[in-house]
């Protein structure tokens, strides 16, 4: 895993484009900003951008492409959002209809892509601070849960906040909160620490996305806002077409994690 962590972003994307990496991207090209992907028709794009602004902790908007352009010119010039993620999900009328390894047959001139910040980008800083991340140690995807907290709605877009959970040793929770608070464009500080029922989560052993990670007696479940939130919103709001990354299968950008340390906003266009 160490040699995979040392890959450059371009090397990691080439590995993915060539079909040689179809697993979650956590720990891959460690130190590079990873991003969630949402693709919508142009007539939904401005409203989705507004939805991101209203719910910026869950949906920190890093880049919005021009209609029909699959190249993220801000975050990774030369990359192709149709081929450079390990797995995609396709929704029609809010229903998940398929998972794909590329989007080339589906691409249309009216599609707009959004890249959103991801908590994977803060994991390097957590590791450097000595915070143990067991999903990385165990080679698992992070656990993700739908919560009972609603996002702030727009005219057509509404749905629940989704969170990712990492078991953190009790004496490291304050440090983990402090470290991730420096990364508001990677979801920032936790939204909750401790009792999952406070978020409407009845069973940590049954995540809605990702892999279950047991919480040891000396650990606390710590919850961060998650970039899978748009997928829950898409299922409730039912746009005619929406495409996202598969949970945990992110886009790896050229930006280094330090480039979003302490930033509170970025021009997404």
Which key phrases capture this entry?
single chain, 269 residues, seven-stranded antiparallel beta sheet, four-stranded antiparallel beta sheet, 7 helices, 11 strands
Proportion of helical residues? 10-25%
Number of DSSP strand runs: 11
The number of helical segments is: 7
Largest sheet: 7 strands, antiparallel
General form:
globular
Say what oligomer this is: single chain
- Secondary structural class: alpha+beta
What does this structure look like?
This protein is of the alpha+beta class and 269 residues long. The protein contains seven helices and eleven strands. The strands form two sheets. Strands 1, 2, 3, 4, 5, 10 and 11 form a seven-stranded antiparallel β-sheet that branches. It has a four-stranded antiparallel β-sheet with strand order 6-7-9-8, with helices on one face. Strand 3 and strand 4 form a beta hairpin. The termini are far apart. The model has no long low-confidence stretch (mean pLDDT 93).
Quick structural gist:
The chain is α+β, with helices and mostly antiparallel strands and 269 residues long. The protein has helices at 2-5, 9-17, 42-54, 123-128, 134-137, 173-180, 229-237, and strands at 32-41, 61-64, 88-92, 95-100, 111-117, 143-150, 160-169, 192-193, 219-225, 242-245, 251-256.
């Amino acid at each position: 895993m160490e040699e995979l962590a040392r890959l450059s972003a371009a090397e990691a994307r080439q590995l993915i484009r060539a079909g040689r990496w179809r697993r979650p991207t956590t720990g891959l090209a460690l130190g590079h900003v990873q991003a969630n992907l949402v693709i919508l028709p142009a007539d939904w794009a401005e409203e989705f951008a507004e939805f991101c602004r209203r719910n910026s902790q869950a949906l920190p908007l890093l880049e919005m492409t021009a209609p029909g352009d699959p190249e993220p010119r801000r975050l990774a010039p030369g990359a192709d959002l149709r081929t450079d993620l390990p797995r995609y999900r396709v929704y029609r009328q809010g229903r998940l209809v398929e998972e794909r390894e590329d989007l080339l047959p589906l691409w249309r001139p009216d599609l707009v892509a959004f890249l959103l910040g991801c908590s994977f980008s803060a994991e390097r800083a957590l590791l450097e601070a000595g915070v143990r991340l067991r999903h990385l140690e165990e080679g698992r995807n992070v656990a993700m849960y739908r919560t009972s907290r609603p996002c702030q709605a727009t005219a057509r877009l509404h749905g629940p906040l989704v969170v990712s959970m990492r078991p953190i040793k009790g004496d490291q929770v304050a440090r983990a909160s402090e470290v991730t608070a420096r990364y508001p464009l990677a979801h920032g500080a936790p939204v909750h620490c401790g009792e999952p029922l406070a978020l409407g989560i009845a069973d940590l052993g049954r995540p809605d996305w990702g892999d279950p990670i047991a919480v040891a007696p000396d650990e606390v479940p710590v919850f961060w806002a998650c970039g899978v939130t748009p997928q829950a919103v898409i299922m409730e709001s039912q746009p005619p077409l929406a495409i996202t990354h598969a949970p945990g299968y992110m886009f790896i950008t050229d930006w280094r994690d330090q480039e979003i340390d302490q930033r509170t906003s970025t021009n997404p266009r």
